[in-house]
Amino acid sequence: MSEPFQAMILHREDKRTIPSIESIDESRLPDGEVVVDVAYSSLNYKDALAVTGKGKVVRSFPIVPGIDLAGTVVSSTDPSFRPGDPVLATGWGLGETTWGGFAQRARLKAGWLVPIPSRLDAKRAMAVGTAGLTAMLCVMRLEAAGLTAEQGPVVVTGAGGGVGSLAAAILAEGGYRVAAVTGRPELGDSLRALGVETIVPRSEMETTHRPLESQRWAGGIDAVGGRILARVLAETHYGGCVASCGLAASPEMTGTVLPFILRNVSLLGVESVVTPFETRREAWDRIARVLAPETLDRLTRSVSLSEVSKLAEEVLAGRVHGRIVVDPSG
Fold first, then answer.
1. Which end of the chain is more exposed for a tag (fewer CB within 10 A), N or C?
2. What is the count of structural domains for the chain?
3. Does 74 share its domain with 186?
């Protein structure tokens, strides 16, 4: 029998979500073919909603939160994986419908796991996490729609967050001219260090705008939704495309169809929860090739499980820049 291990478990009491760090046994883990020793997880916006109880993320209690994890295979009944294999998992209901990454051990379905590319280790894989995977999937969709670096600048909204900062870095590494929208002017230097060319104040993008504005962007990656997405579309070049992957500001979009029917603009939806394996593997392989280790390290800080609850509030308040990696053994 394995030794007990540390985990954060969310309980529901009197309509409140109560996080608790507990010592548990492997027998409590959900069914799955592969047992993984978790080296790192990451704290995402969705995790913050789950831990604080401020969003309807968790479907059943008790549960271990954490939509990402990376570590080493301990045992597997599936021949695709062997003990010692470095693996990662993101999405698939982790931390929502099944136990996730805020624990030192996890048991998962083999189909949820992706080998960690050789250019990454577990910590840097979690510095990427769901945020970086989503960012890369956005870039891949834009390029599949015909976007090239030669067509003009690409705008990234929510650039201070995980998806936005990694999207900016990926685009810049690919030779794109990147404009970053943020409400935090103090992040200007750090965003420029990622390769961002232009900083656009969020207030400028939130103002009332005409259905069609001057054409500024060859494409865009939007993680916030709402009025900002509507303005991005109104400013996109003829034949341009925008990838939508988040709703940090609003799930609504108060725009018009004019960018679509007069400028041939395309709005592309991107999700990363149930993305097929081959697409995931392609995205992770490209991430490993494109993102320099020093770029990831500059964006990342590591915290223990005991720090997660406080930091979750900071994430929801928009006071966190870059990526937070969670060490479940800390």
1. N
2. 2
3. no
Tell me: pLDDT of 231 over 60: yes
Nearest-5° Cα angle at 63, 114 to 5 = 75
Structure tokens of 262?
């007069």
Alpha-carbon dihedral sign for residues 17, 18, 22, 28: negative
List, for residues 121-150, the tens digit of each pLDDT value: 999 999 999 999 999 999 999 999 999 999
For residues 285-295, give the mean pLDDT: 94
Pick from 219, 60, 69, 246: which is nearest to 144 by CA? 219
181 token code pair: 């929208």
Residue 6 contacts by C-beta under 8 Å, 6 or more apart in sequence? 21, 22, 23, 103, 104, 305, 328, 329
Specify whether 163 is located in the same domain as 191.
yes
| Residue 187: inside a domain | yes
Domain assignment of residue 78, yes or no: yes
